[in-house]
Amino acid sequence: MARKQSLNRSPKTHPFKRLFEYGHNYRDAIRQATVCSILNKLFDLAPPALIGLAVDVVVQKDTSLIAKFGIKDVFGQLVVITFLSFIIWGLESIFEYAYALLWRNLAQNIQHDLRLDAYSHIQELELAYFEERSTGGLMSILSDDINQLERFLDAGANDLIQVATTVVIIGGAFFILAPSVAWMAMLPIPFILWGSIAFQHRLAPRYADVREKVSLLNSRLSNNLSGITTIKSFVTEKYETNRIAEESEAYRQSNRKAIALSSAFVPLIRIIILIGFTATLLIGGMDAANGRLSVGTYSVLVFLTQRLLWPLTRLGETLDQYQRAMASTNRVMNLLDTPIAIHSGHVSLPVASVRGEVELQNVTFAYNGRNPVIKNLSLHIPAGKTIAIVGSTGSGKSTLVKLLLRLYEIQSGTITLDGIELRDLNFRDLRSCIGLVSQDVFLFHGTVAENIAYGSPDATEAEVIEAAKIAEAHDFIMQLPESYDTIVGERGQKLSGGQRQRIAIARAVLKNPPILILDEATSAVDNETEAAIQRSLERITANRTTIAIAHRLSTVRNADCIYVMEYGKLVEEGRHEQLLAERGIYASLWKVQTGIKSEIT
């Protein structure tokens, strides 16, 4: 598979060169396909020569070219030409099959590798990258742009090679057979090539704009499909249709500008070709009539002129494909060239050896272009203990979770796990030892069992069921239409919020991590579901480091230590009773949530 290390080039490098460098592992296949394209074109250009030989036999009989090889009989000479025709047409067909097979498989292979490399690279990028880009735009690159490249490799590359072969072979034949006429047939070619290059340069920015517009359209469509419930509930179907219409119209107008230019290419080229063809027809005909050129040679020249010049009219279509492909190539390669801001460390920490002691020292963090969310924070989380982090919205609680998983990089300070800096730890080891149950549960389209076993591919059916029982999810799962084989739908939309939450807990139970992070795990469920989740959490938090990010203080009142955050700083710490006695921020939050006044007034 082609790998990304060959892509470290300036974005100003021509996209074709970048694509060629990317496909360096396929150079042998490219050579084979190129040879087959050339050989196919050689045999494709042979029939005009056979026609010339046949005319020569009919006109000159025993003085024809074939007669010089000892075959004087006209019938015998025509049999030889017939035999050669079978061979040539057969070889042309064989090489056409070969080049089609090679180019199309090459297109599939490069498309496959490019999509996988692009997707793998996206997975390695930090979360900040995704905050600035839409899912639809990235989907447009991974799907539409890479498919555009495939379409060019399927046919366009072969067309360019065969046009070049045609010019070289027929040009050489002209200068050998009739030097006096050759220049007339070849005269249009420089103008055609110059026109092609000029059109290419003018088309490039137009197709780049087309790719940008389709990306914006895909972004809007993806966003709307994800928010279809909101659209329906606010009765904004017409409004959203109008917005899609605007994006689609922009895409249509962008395409219209490109089409207006690319469509003018072929008619202009036909006029130039006509000049060369009629010159050969007229002057070559006069030379044949005056005996300076044999009738057979003249026949060959007329046919070859057509074979040389008319295929050039397809150059416009091929260049159209080429420019679309290069615009797409630029977008894909620019994605692959996006630098990875957060790199994995090299220290290995097997999950079995993790104690779970976490310490933050003077940590400061700010999202891109914003004020610090965490300010000079120091926090100690003992191994095997349950600690809670509470605070008002925007105080930085959930940001801590992202920092512990190294989804973002801190600006200053250190975070250690069992005394080892997170920056030094291997990503896989770090994240394997942490189980996250988030308030925003994401379930993949698949079965309940597949979602519980996600991240634990070797889990047995019995282990999946046991994890579900611990998470108090087994009972409701058994009531589903196909129990554990029930399809949950995209993002788990067929399940309730509480059901999704319990499946997420079961997933964490099955992973069995030494560190468990509960990020508002019960914030969006009813009281009955919360009670069920709390019972399951009491079982799974035993003998492991647990960090509970909570808005509902009732869910963390039994924690070994509660940390209170405000504006990115640690302002209080202690057990539930201690914090109430201090009559500070925690006590105020407790008062708001419970309505209990006597304890703190």
What does this structure look like?
Helix content is 60%, strand content 10%. The protein contains 22 helices and ten strands. With 601 residues, it is an alpha/beta fold. The strands form two sheets. It has a six-stranded mixed sheet, sandwiched between helices. Strands 2-1-4-5 form a four-stranded antiparallel sheet, with helices on one face. The longest helix is centred in the N-terminal third of the chain and has 51 residues. Strand 1 and strand 2 form a beta hairpin. Helix 6 packs antiparallel against helix 7 and helix 8 packs antiparallel against helix 10.
Question: Regarding CATH, which class of the largest domain?
Answer: Mainly Alpha
The geometry reads as: elongated
Taking the alpha carbons of the first and last residues, their distance comes to 69 Å
Integer average pLDDT: 80
Determine the structural class based on helices, strands and strand pairing. Answer: alpha/beta
Could you name the key traits of this structure?
single chain; six-stranded mixed sheet; Rossmann fold; four-stranded antiparallel sheet; 60% helix; transmembrane helix; transmembrane; alpha/beta; disordered C terminus; 3 domains; ABC transporter transmembrane region fold; disordered N terminus
